[in-house]
Amino acid sequence: MAIGLYIHIPFCLKKCAYCDFCSFPAVDPETRAGYLSSLCEEIRSYRTEPEEEIDTVFFGGGTPSLLTPNELRGIFCAIRESFRITDGAEITIESNPKTLTREKLRFYREIGINRLSIGLQSADPAELRLLGRVHNFEDFRSGFLLAREAGFSQINVDLIYAVPGQSKESFLRTLAKVTALSPEHISCYSLILEEGTPLYAQKDALVFPTEDEEYEIYLAAVAFLKEKGYRHYEISNYALPGSECRHNLHYWRDEEYIGVGMAAHSYYRGKRYGNVETFAGYADRFGSAHRKAEDSLGREDAFEYAMLRLRLSEGMSLSEYEATFGREFAAGKRDRLRFYQEGGYLILKDGRLAMTDRGFYVSNAILSDLL
User: What is 95-143 written as a DSSP string?
Assistant: First the structure.
């Protein structure tokens, strides 16, 4: 079976106010060149005979669209030397609207990138300022139209809701502006306050939506996007039919993937491991030596197994769960399982258990109760 390849590019224009990802602005040229050299060596460390097949490649970050054509060309050379990219593979690059140009987008298409993910987050100027974004909606709109002109037929737009000062109406205005452009895929993530970020430091001075208000925003978004033809196929993701993110489906279906670059994680040949999270550590120990085994994960426990599969609207096969763990799902808690079904949080059909839109919103709490 073909697997996915994730490539972490930690460079960014500016650290956003909410971001605790492994990303760094203003990286000096020497560090940048050293990182990319180590990245290519790590990719080559996976060369096998016969070549491993990959059917998705995902450039994430950070801001991968900061890469120059020569830098990106070098990474693709390493990929093609080490793997066989299947026909029709999905190849995605994340981008900041401020970095997109006609020339860059044309180059992406020439080199084989066929899916673009644009980080808009909001169409509201005040919300963008609060989030620390460096672009405005017109930057996004311009980049989106240039991408269409360059031939991109698969575009994702990332959005954030539950932003301080945001209302249901303001988020629906953002969705209306975005869907007017008809992207194939939309991701809507709830803002999470991470300790150590600028937004976390301001939390006592900001007015966040209440739990009930956040839930209203979520339900309104689900209804709005369904009306526009988007299928709510994963907790935070919506797609026009046939435009689901194939790379992320590898994760959610517990299929194998390789992650390269600092802080990247892999599930490969039955083992899970992650990479170090500093430039120095990564550059000094590229390849298998810098990987930190996550033996404690080993074979997924029941909670993680169910959590991954129930992220998807397709749900989980109860017979496969029983075969894997040697017991029924929610054994001894059939009354609680029935409670969630009758409450409209879970549905059981043809031997598959799945979350409803209501269930998605509180999925971890439901699983904690059942397992």
Answer: E-GGG--HHHHHHHHHHT--EEEEEEE-S-HHHHHHHT-S--HHHHHHH
